[in-house]
Amino acid sequence: MDGHIYRGALTGGPVTKLTADDDRWHFLHGVSPDGTRIAYVELEGFEHPGRLAIAPAVEGGGPVTVLDTGDGHLDGPEWSPDGRWLLCNTEHFGTAPGHAQLARIPDGGGELEQLVKSDSVDWFPHLSPDARLASYIAFPAGTIGHPADLDVEVRLVSTDDWATPLRRYPLFGGQGTLNVNSWAPDSSRFAFVAYPITH
Fold first, then answer.
1. Disulfide: which of 71, 106, 137, 187 matches 130 by Cβ 3.0-4.6 Å?
2. Torsion-angle region of residue 25: left (phi > 0), alpha (psi -120 to 50) or beta?
3. What is the pTM of this model?
4. How far is CA 28 from CA 62, 124, 130, in A?
5. Sorting pLDDT into bands at 50, 70 and 90, what band is 58?
6. Which of 156, 150, 102 shows the shortest CA–CA distance to 134?
7. Looking at the predicted structure, is the pLDDT value of residue 40 above 90?
8. Taking a C-beta distance cutoff of 8 angstroms, is the pair 192, 154 a contact?
9. Contacts of 135 (CB under 8 A, 6+ apart)
């Protein structure tokens, strides 16, 4: 909880801090397909909108690039499997404060492209490894951020038609339900978290 991103071996051992001491929060979401870069949300403070930052995946590996994604909070950036795009959710296209929508931007910067228009508050688009399918979480209209303990919906779509869900999974969840990519390597299934309801 120090606001930094670290790199460590899956087998354990010492870790290396990748982010600078710049008085900002850094939330990792994506690693480039070739493993050389990380994409994360950079926050000056929680009262400020998140920005899309890209940095080398090694300590002291080079400068940080902050991509221009327009107005509004941005979150959840991760690369497409071919490395051409960064997918995210952003309030840039929203019709009200907090109205996040799904988008993508070319790797290296460029025009932000909306993937689907909806009345729901849509977060965390995740592509399958074969790039044919995507999952994301839809919060109720009017939701601010991605809080816990709500009736939400996980949606499965074809990347040829983001507007028409192939499956809908209504559940009690929210924060933590689908924050990071959880697709199986063979693109046959994905995981998400529903919260238990106790009486």
1. 187
2. beta
3. 0.93
4. 17, 13, 22
5. confident
6. 156
7. yes
8. yes
9. 125, 126, 128, 154, 155, 156, 157, 178, 182, 183, 190, 192
